[in-house]
Structure formats: C-alpha cells, structure tokens
Automatic annotation (TrEMBL):
Protein's UniProt name: TIGR00255 family protein
Coiled coil: none
Family the entry assigns: Belongs to the YicC/YloC family.
Species: Nitrosomonas nitrosa
Pfam family, one: YicC-like_N
Start and end residues of each Endoribonuclease YicC-like C-terminal domain: 175-288
Domain Endoribonuclease YicC-like N-terminal: 2-154
Length: 288
C-alpha cells in the first residue's frame, strides 16, 4: 500500500490509577522526526516508544503526546512536586510584573497543572505495559489513516498519469506534420525567388530543421518515466523518494520538449505537461 505521511490518531485507556490518552500527529518530512510531549513521570518510556514508532514509520514528522489524568481519591497518599510548584509561582510573579491586571493562579489551577500532584503509588514500571499497549493501538490507527490518505493520493496520481499519456499521444503525430509544413513553405519561397527546389542546400535545411524539432528521444524517455511511476505506485511500499526523483526527470523532459517547440500546439502541450507534473510533484511530497 502507498502511505501518506499525513495522519492523526488518538486513543485512551483506563487504568486503576487514572486515564491515559495518547495522541499521534503526522505531517510530511524528509526523514523520520519524532517529537515527544510526555509527563515527567513517563519520560523513562520515551526510548521504548521511539523504538516502537520507528519499526512502523520510515518518514514524517511525528508529534507524540501522552497525557495522564489521575482519579480523584483522597485516600491515596499524594505529594506535591515542589520544584514544579516553585517554577509556577515564579512564572506567575513574572506575568504579574509585566501585566499587573492579570489574575493570579488559583489553587485549583495549580492542582490541575500536569505533574504538580503525584500519587506516591504511581510507578513507571507498572505503567510501562499499559502505555506501550496504548501506543501500539494508536499507532495502528495512525497507520490506517496514513494508508487511507495514501490510497487517495495514489488514485489522484494515476489519474494525472493517464492525462500525461494522452498528451504525449497527441504530441507524437505533430512532428511529421510540422516537418511537412516547413518543407512546403520552404519550396514555395524558393519558387518565388526562382531557386531550384532540388538544390542540395534545401535538403540540408530540411535535415537541420528536422533535427531541431525531433523529440523522439524525449518522448521515449517520458514514456519510460511514466511507466516507472505507474509501476512504483502499483507496487506500493515506501515510494516517496523514488517518486520525487521521477517527478524531477519528468519535468526535465517536459522542459526539453518546450525548448524544441516551433509550434503553438506543441508549446501548449508542453505547458500542460509541466502543470500536471507540478501537481503530481506537490502530492508526492506527502507520500512516505
């Protein structure tokens, strides 16, 4: 399957100490870049979580956010995170100094702040298994979302591919017509100037013009690249970098066609080719 680098998934899990929620956001990126936003109590899980994400994802900027909401139970021994509390009070004073009309943090605000109140029985070891299970489930949802998006991208690219093939088919018959028209005009001008139309210089002019407008090689390479793009899309897998390279090659051939154009219709086709290729290139940037 072709997978997009764009996706979103969020899942929650209830445990005895509270509620865990894991959110994964994914956007396109040249490499795999994973950013974590975890409560302090869960920082030790980052390495294992990074390893799991790396086994399923190869490219994209991934934002992984884990939140933990403990159940309110006054019978459980709890403690304040004094370091975090001191930082909050210092920040509160700084804001009041800059904005005297701002309201102070309330006790409720402070107690709700992530990490301020911690239960003494909260054990990272005990939370390791439910957190990793939650990540596994969320990752499955993210992967499914990326595949759904990738399938849409594949269909769009195949549609553009078909239009490119139609344009190249229209272009091929134009070259012999252009050569015949040039020969006809050249002979007519020579007859007006009373010059022998069978002169060797005339044949040389025709050969030179034919060489100038000959795009057989470009059309052949263009067709080869189109076949490879289709093969890559249907094959699936991590195809983003290969498709990006093929878009560059397609654009190169389209530019060459445009530079050899001596006809309005050929120029129009060349422009349409480049527009379609650019549309494909923009979408290819989102493919893993």
């Amino acid at each position: 399957m072709i997978a997009s680098m764009t996706g979103y998934a969020i899942t929650s899990k209830e445990i005895s100490e509270g509620s865990l929620t894991l959110e994964l956001r994914s956007v396109n990126n040249r490499y795999l870049d994973i950013q974590f936003r975890l409560p302090d109590e869960f920082r030790s899980l980052e390495s294992a979580m990074r390893e799991m994400l790396g086994t399923q994802l190869t490219r994209g900027k991934i934002d992984c956010r884990l939140t933990f909401t403990p159940y309110v139970n006054l019978t459980l021994p709890q403690q304040l995170n004094e370091q975090l509390l001191a930082k909050l009070m210092k920040l509160n004073d700084m804001v009041k100094s800059a904005l005297p009309e701002a309201k102070n943090l309330t006790v409720a605000d402070i107690l709700r702040w992530p990490g301020v109140v911690r239960s003494e029985i909260l054990s990272t070891n005990e939370l390791h298994e439910p957190c990793m299970e939650l990540l596994k489930n969320t990752l499955q949802e993210l992967t499914a979302a990326r595949i759904r998006e990738g399938d849409k991208l594949k269909n769009m690219l195949l549609n553009r591919l078909q239009k490119l093939r139609q344009l190249t088919t229209e272009l091929s018959p134009r070259i012999p017509v252009l050569l015949a028209n040039f020969q006809e005009k050249l002979i007519a001008r020579l007859q007006e100037a009373r010059i022998d139309a069978n002169d060797e210089r005339i044949r040389q002019e025709l050969i030179l013009f034919a060489s100038k407008i000959d795009v057989d090689e470009e059309l052949s390479r263009l067709q080869t690249h189109l076949d490879e793009v289709e093969h890559t899309l249907l094959k699936g897998g991590c195809a983003g970098k290969r498709l990006d390279f093929l878009m560059q090659e397609l654009n190169r051939e389209a530019n060459t066609l445009g530079s050899k154009s001596v006809d309005v219709e050929v120029s129009k086709i060349s422009v349409e080719l480049k527009v379609l290729i650019e549309q494909m290139r923009e979408q290819v940037q989102n493919i893993e």
